[in-house]
Amino acid sequence: MTPTNVPSSPSGKHSPSEKQRIVVVGAGYAGLMCALRVAPYARVTLVDPADRFTERIRLHQRAAGRPDVTHALGSFLRPTGITHVAARATAIDAAAREVRTDDGRVLPYDRLVHALGSRTRSTVPGDRDRAYTVESATELHKRLQDGPGSLTVVGAGLTGIELATELAETHPRWRVRLLTEGAVGPGLSEKGRAHVRVALAARGVRVEEGRRVAGPDDIDTDVVVWAASMAPNTEVARAAGLALDGGGRVEVDTVLRSVSHPEVYAVGDSAAGHTATAGSLRMGCAAALPGGSHVANALIAELRGEEPKPLSFSYNLQCLSLGRRDGLVQFVRADDSPRDRVLTGRPAAFVKEGIVRSTVGVLKLASRRPDLLPRVPGFG
Ligand SMILES: Cc1cc2nc3c(=O)[nH]c(=O)nc-3n(C[C@H](O)[C@H](O)[C@H](O)COP(=O)(O)OP(=O)(O)OC[C@H]3O[C@@H](n4cnc5c(N)ncnc54)[C@H](O)[C@@H]3O)c2cc1C
Questions:
Q1: Measured from the CA of 284, which atom of ligand 1 is nearest?
Q2: Could you identify the atom of ligand 1 that is nearest to the CA of residue 134?
Q3: What class, spelled out in words, does domain 131-228 have in CATH?
Q4: CA-to-CA distance for 335 and 29, rounded, in angstroms?
Q5: Structurally, what CATH architecture does the domain formed by 3-120+230-312 represent?
Q6: H helices of 47-151, where?
Q7: Of 26, 226, 258, 269, which is the most exposed, with the fewest CB atoms less than 10 Å away?
Q8: What is the spatial distance between Cα 265 and Cα 234, in angstroms, rounded to a whole number?
Q9: Which residue owns the Cα nearest ligand 1 atom 45?
Q10: In which residue ranges of the chain is pLDDT below 70?
Q11: Can you give the pLDDT at residue 339?
Q12: What's the pLDDT score for residue 126?
């Protein structure tokens, strides 16, 4: 990007046609935040087939019966001048600097932001009528309405625990089991794990640890919810020749630029982000939102002809909902390893709900007053 076309201020003395073209693929937490934050400085196109933003961190609540966990994308984009292309990105031509979409569009870019997120890794598809993932939360909810039976959640990481407690609490006539290869909540402290066990038992969830299953069809149950691990959405990046790490995420430098294609940034679950204090970033909204803001800052710095700064990010909490009235706040070190300290019960549920609400709040702020966002801790 040449500094000659750089708008001198967020209000910009240049017409939109003179501005640099930034294409953001994926309107999840990371991509939407980045697009909103950089919009006053550039011509931004946001590519996502959905016309609603999904609060993915509430999908277990959707499965349990919460009526809606989405927001019209237009409510964020309206004041910004961002163009939303409601289509799926199918290819990146890195040499020509173009994104292709499934409705035949070709979108040229000066800078590309890859923010395609992740999905449940479900390598062994099961019977469609009984095997679900958290992404099919609406269908799962419908199935639970059909009548009681046995339900098995596979995988006892944070998502599996949230699903099992929420579903058992809202559907007490279903017999819920949580089955996992290792231990429940492997990343939690002893105190944290103990509280989770009590919360599961209180809702009648049967826990089976140390059980490895190959796929949904291996389990004798009416309904399986597969929550064993997450896979990054990087097929398009792989086909474009972007360097990926061993876990299939886009390999990036400390600024979140692709190590093989520096004109491409990658952020959120699809990127192998890392910082000096946090180390390798796990997939999580906790890093995706500030990461999106950071990439916007890096793009603005580039537009001004300045060198973008490395991402600065550390962990401090892991928050879990355990149904609607209980929760766990696990205090962690900067590198996400658990401390002994935890907060439990209603106060933890309250903190968790506040954090979940704040994710949409901070996106709304980025939409309406992007100039105020740097005052929010973590979004400087
Ligand atoms: C039940 C549940 C609870 C969770 N709770 C927490 C929590 O408490 N804390 C936490 O830190 N994390 C939590 N997570 C993880 C968190 O949801 C993810 O880390 C976060 O959503 C990642 O954000 P993202 O922007 O990278 O990707 P996503 O939110 O997955 O967004 C990706 C976007 O890309 C779009 N897309 C996909 N393919 C294409 C394509 N080809 N073309 C165009 N667009 C495309 C999708 O439509 C989507 O809008 C939870 C996840 C689940 C499932």
A1: 19
A2: 53
A3: alpha beta
A4: 21
A5: 3-Layer(bba) Sandwich (3.50)
A6: 59-64, 73-77, 137-145
A7: 258
A8: 13
A9: 26
A10: 1-18, 123-128
A11: 98
A12: 58
